[in-house]
Prior knowledge:
Layout: E1 2-8, E2 11-17, E3 24-27, H1 39-44, H2 48-57, E4 64-66, E5 71-72, E6 82-86, H3 90-95, E7 105-109, E8 114-116, E9 121-123, E10 130-131, E11 134-140, E12 156-164, E13 166-167, H4 168-171, E14 187-195, E15 207-212, E16 215-221, H5 229-239, E17 247-249, E18 271-276, E19 280-288
Parallel strand pairs: 6-17, 8-14, 9-19
Antiparallel strand pairs: 1-2, 1-5, 1-14, 2-3, 3-4, 6-7, 10-13, 11-12, 11-17, 12-14, 15-16, 15-18, 18-19
Amino acid sequence: MRLISYDNQGRAAIGVVTSADAAEFVDLGATGFSFSTDMTGLLAAPGGLAAAKAAADAAPSHAVKPLAGIKYLPVVPRPPKILCLGLNYADHAKEGGHAKPEYPSFFMRGATSQVAHQQPIVRPKVSIKLDYEAELAVIIGARARHLTKADALACVAGYSCYNDGSVRDYQRKTSQWTIGKNFDATGGFGPWLVTADELPAGCAGLRIQSRLNGKVMQDANTRDFLFDVVEALCLITECMTLEPGDVIITGTPGGVGHARTPPVWMAPGDVCEIDIEGIGVLSNPIAGEK
């Protein structure tokens, strides 16, 4: 099942993409489904995903709408937590001048840094060094602490695409990366949540690409993770409780703009796409901050 968050006359709404060509969706609100406006609430509700699927399968014809022309919202518009792994591919660690890490470089994003599919990623006034990062997003569907390898994936609701847009000069102003990763509207998230049952366990073995104006910039596979989804979840829950709606961003492969000669930055007028096999394509135009 593929779930979208979108703007329905100024209010958040949830839909289920029903057609194989991603042309139509069921507006869950038009079916009378209880959790039709709150993605975090839907994920937290016992049996919520199964109930959403049942509502979509039984939807009346007036609830089926075209995807064309809708305004997407970030898949989880305001996640309780957005946790990110840095340096999770050996080639990206190497191109940034880092040794292969023994432990992930964790950092956090805020909800205001996110932007939806087809909405502009915004280059800030203070820098031109806005870089792309193709990443797999893991969306949590159940409260979890002290996970093990045997049970870690039970807390995962699904997966999506993420562009961990990074303002590189600000990222490097301190030893912590937070400031360069949290400019408003720099993190693309979408287009939808694909439920875990439709993908390989832990999204292992999926091709992941970024394309800038149609040119492939990154081309890798999730089998190259240094810390795979299971291990990342186990490490995170040593420290903190994961909650429904939390989002884990799993790191980017080599090929980012700052490591190229000359560097390549996302600029107003560009279009950046993140393509993950089995999930879909997240597309964002780039705009300048007004």
